[in-house]
């Protein structure tokens, strides 16, 4: 473990610089060059490892011993205490939806260890488990009963302990909170924290290194808003703040679009979309703030468009991604990009378009066929 922490202290990242591939098939559909930023080939299977990995590294290096974040729609915050247990600081933060708790085992005084757990699903949980393994520490992920065995096996493959609690995410989160009351448990938010966004911003730095000049537009999917917040920060950091962002969601998981229309945060009553990886009921405050700083177009596609995009992408690029990623791909495949151009909201002659292929953990061939049958 000490070797793992030494590597962490050197600033080595848990994520990799992912390929930026030109897609002939999507370029034909879009009428301009389309590049794919392939976050689905990250070692943890999605972009989430950028932010969650960065968060975990910083927590370990800074010596925090307790990090607790409320789940659901409650107001929460981050509590950091030193080895003596005194309160070192409190940072208010809204963490809607699900809570993610990473079981980090840290050396404290007298041989004691600090630990934590996780209540999450899919990409965030896998990123947490992966980061924990790289740190040389155990991870426990709390999931609702009925979670697919595909996800459970993947988490166990990363060395995580998996606990099932309740029938919905909120009930799993309650179990996680109960466990988090134990001394030394560390809470890592899945999307709503500045360190998470800072980690995700590294994606834009890679884009600038690869492209040199800014693209005409950037397409991404929005769930809790962590990727959007991170990409927005990255665009500003590299001087690309004039690049428009097309933020895609599926109907039934459209908390960002609902917030934009209302001009304030909106909590969805339920997540009814099949794109469960987009399943935050309330978007992060920071995501809504980004709309005042950059040009962001919020677009909503239906489940059938997202799943159809997944199938077309599999046929065109030989990569299987999840419906959440299909929401972003549907911007191209369903003609939404062309509509924005026809309406004069985007330039009719875009130099290029970058689509962030965010991940593919929560899908397999059997699951894709089941979704197609379900949606007709």
TrEMBL record:
Its EC number is 4.3.1.17, 4.3.1.19. GO terms for molecular function: L-serine ammonia-lyase activity; threonine deaminase activity. The keyword Lipid metabolism applies. InterPro entries: Ser/Thr_Dehydratase (IPR050147), TrpB-like_PALP (IPR001926), TrpB-like_PALP_sf (IPR036052). One of its GO terms (biological process) is lipid metabolic process. It catalyses: L-threonine = 2-oxobutanoate + NH4(+); L-serine = pyruvate + NH4(+). Its cofactor is pyridoxal 5'-phosphate. Transmembrane segments: none annotated. It is an enzyme of class 4 (lyase). Belongs to the serine/threonine dehydratase family. This is L-serine deaminase. It comes from Suricata suricatta.
